[in-house]
């Protein structure tokens, strides 16, 4: 999920590095995205809120569905 969202945000020119993604969108330590195997619920909730702030409703909806355990179009991947 994180890799998918990061890639989408990169394509949309909203983030350039994993460190910025961790800090800005996950509200976690700069190394969080690179070091985490599976994102915490807190990180995903932070991501959901921040995506709404940046008007990325399509991605926010997918993150929320993932949090609720519902199927999404986004791949459920590990950090690459």
Structural descriptors:
80 residues; mainly alpha
In short:
By secondary structure, this protein is mainly α. It is built from 5 helices and no strands. It has one domain.
Task: Give a verbal description of the structure.
Helix content is 57%, strand content 0%. By secondary structure, the chain is an all-alpha fold. It has one domain. It is globular and about 30 Å long.
Number of domains: 1
Query: Percent range for helical residues?
Result: 55-70%
Sheet with the most strands, sense and barrel status? none
- Tell how many strands the DSSP assignment holds: 0
Individual helix count: 5
Main structural class: mainly alpha
Draw up the topology in text.
Layout lengths: L1 H10 L6 H8 L6 H4 L5 H13 L3 H11 L13
Helix pairs in contact: 4-5
């Amino acid at each position: 999920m994180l890799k998918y969202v990061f890639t989408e945000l990169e394509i949309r020119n909203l983030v350039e590095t994993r460190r910025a993604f961790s800090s800005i969108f996950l509200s976690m330590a700069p190394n969080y995205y690179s070091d985490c195997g599976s994102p915490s619920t807190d990180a995903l909730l932070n991501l959901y809120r921040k995506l709404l702030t940046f008007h990325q409703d399509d991605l926010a909806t997918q993150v929320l569905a993932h949090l609720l355990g519902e199927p999404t179009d986004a791949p459920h991947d590990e950090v690459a």
